[in-house]
Amino acid sequence: MTTKKIPNFKSEEEEARFWDEHDTTEYADEFETVNLEMDPKLEAEILKKRELKKPVTLRLEPGQIETVKKIAENKGLPYQTLIRMWITEAIHKEIMS
Question: Nearest 5°: CA angle at 69, between 68 and 75?
């Protein structure tokens, strides 16, 4: 599969606008695969925080769920992550007021 060439950018802002408006899969051949190593302590901390999350059940209207899914898709996030972010922001705002 032939993909498009990534243009040269004059600034980071120009590059950011470009990627906001284009799909990276159209430029797949332009990217290099990299292997990353994570600090073992950081990895353990991340895994520990992940384990600390507890599932909850929320009863939402189907329209609310669909709206959240659309917003999340536009932001490139899983909808559960977006809901969690909103809850975190609301808690922080409540604590600060």
Answer: 90
